[in-house]
Design goal:
The chain is mainly α and 361 residues long. The longest helix is centred in the C-terminal third of the chain and has 29 residues.
Length: 361
C-alpha cells in the first residue's frame, strides 16, 4: 500500500483540482475547433495532407485534430472531451516524475514536481477551455526529452537527432505555447556542457544546430508571418524594455499566486510583481549560492527557473501591457517548470537542514 500513495495523491489532486470541468459544456472556440476540423479534415487522406498543417491557423491545428477525433467517437456530448483532458493532465503529471527523476536522480524531486503540477491552479484554462488540451501533449514530450537528455552528456550522435525530433514534435503540437523552446534549447545544451572552450566549441555549436535549426525551419515554413513575429517583436514594446521586464515578472507572479485568492483588480498586479520578483531572486540566489554544495541540483534549478521565464518572453513581447490571470492558458508551461524548480529548492533545503542538525547532534 505504501507504493500507492504517490499515484493516488496525483489522481485525487488532479480530480479535486479540475474534476468540476466534467460538468462544463462545449462553447466558444471549442466549437470553432470542431468546425475547422470538419472543414479541413473531411477524409482520411486529408489528415495526411501537409497543406492542412501550414495554414494561417496552423498554430491550433492539433487542437482541432484532438477535438475532431473525439467528436468522431462521442459526437458532441461534452463529457468525453473534458474527461479526455482530465486523463491527459493526469498522465502529464506522472510524466514530470519520470522526467525530473531522470535528470535529478532524486525520487522526491520527481514526486513533488508531479504533485505540484496536479495541484496547481495556474494555467487551468488549458483544461477548462478544452480545445487547448493539446498543450499537455507538448509538455509530455518535453519530459520525454528530459529522460533522453539525462542519459549521458550531450554529444553529436543519433541521440541528439532523436532529441531534435522530440522537440520539433512538441513545437508542432502546440506552436503557440512552445515559443520558449527557442530559449530553452540553448540553456539545456549549455547546462549539459557546463563550460565552453576551444576543445568543445564546435561540438557545442553542432548539437545546438541539430536541436535549434529544425525548430526555426518548422516555424518559418508553417506560419507565413513568423519571421515578422520573431524579428520585429520588440516593436510591440515601443522600445520600453523596462515595462516588458516588469510585465514578465508580474506574469511569473501570476503563475504562483492563484487569482481566486486575491481581488482581480490593479493591486493584484503589484502583488504578483512582488511575488514574481521575490521568487526569482530567492531561487536564483539559493541555487547560485549552493552551486558547490549541490552542483547538479543547482544547475538543474537554474535551468528550470530560466526555462519558466523563457516561456513568458515572446508572449510578453507580443502583449507588453497584458498581465495574464493565474488561470490563463499561457501560464501552464511557465508554471510547470517553476514547480520543478520549487521541488528542487524544497528537497535540497530539507536535506541541508537535516545535515546541519546531524552535525550539531
Amino acid at each position: 500500500m505504501r507504493k500507492m500513495w504517490f499515484p493516488a495523491t496525483v489522481i485525487l489532486l488532479s480530480f479535486f483540482n479540475i474534476g468540476q470541468s466534467l460538468q462544463f459544456a462545449i462553447n466558444g472556440d471549442d466549437w470553432l475547433a470542431l468546425y475547422r476540423y470538419n472543414q479541413d479534415f473531411n477524409s482520411f487522406i486529408s489528415h495526411l495532407d501537409i497543406r492542412n498543417y501550414i495554414t494561417p491557423t496552423s498554430n491550433y491545428v492539433f487542437g482541432y485534430l484532438m477535438m475532431g477525433i473525439i467528436s468522431k467517437l462521442f459526437s458532441y456530448n461534452p463529457y468525453p472531451y473534458y474527461l479526455v483532458a482530465l486523463i491527459i493532465r493526469i498522465i502529464t503529471a506522472f510524466s514530470f516524475y519520470f522526467g525530473v527523476y531522470s535528470v535529478a536522480k532524486n525520487k522526491w524531486m520527481g514526486y513533488l514536481s508531479a504533485i505540484f503540477f496536479a495541484a496547481m491552479y495556474a494555467g487551468i484554462e488549458t483544461t477548462n477551455w478544452v480545445s487547448n488540451m493539446n498543450t499537455y501533449l507538448s509538455i509530455i514530450l518535453m519530459n520525454v526529452f528530459l529522460i533522453i537528455y539525462s542519459r549521458k552528456p550531450m554529444t553529436l550522435s543519433f541521440k541528439t537527432v532523436m532529441q531534435s525530433l522530440i522537440l520539433v514534435a512538441s513545437f508542432m503540437i502546440t506552436p503557440v505555447r512552445m515559443h520558449g523552446l527557442l530559449f530553452f534549447v540553448p540553456f539545456a545544451v549549455f547546462s549539459s556542457f557546463g563550460k565552453i572552450n576551444r576543445r568543445n566549441i564546435f561540438q557545442f555549436l553542432g548539437i545546438l544546430s541539430i536541436l535549434y535549426i529544425p525548430l526555426i525551419l518548422f516555424r518559418l515554413l508553417t506560419y507565413p508571418n513568423s519571421a515578422l513575429d520573431y524579428t520585429r517583436l520588440t516593436s510591440s514594446s515601443n522600445g520600453n524594455i523596462f515595462s516588458v521586464l516588469l510585465n514578465l515578472i508580474t506574469n511569473l507572479g501570476s503563475s504562483i499566486i492563484p487569482g481566486i485568492l486575491i481581488n482581480q483588480a490593479q493591486p493584484e498586479n503589484l502583488f504578483n510583481l512582488l511575488g514574481g520578483g521575490l521568487t526569482m531572486l530567492i531561487l536564483a540566489t539559493y541555487f547560485y549560492a549552493n552551486r558547490l554544495v549541490y552542483p547538479l541540483y543547482s544547475k538543474l534549478g537554474l535551468l528550470f527557473l530560466s526555462s519558466s521565464i523563457s516561456f513568458l518572453i515572446i508572449p510578453g513581447l507580443i502583449n507588453p501591457t497584458s498581465v495574464f490571470s493565474s488561470d490563463h492558458r499561457y501560464l501552464i508551461i511557465p508554471a510547470s517548470w517553476l514547480m520543478v524548480a520549487f521541488s528542487i529548492f524544497i528537497v535540497t533545503l530539507y536535506s541541508r537542514k537535516n545535515s546541519m542538525l546531524k552535525s550539531l547532534a
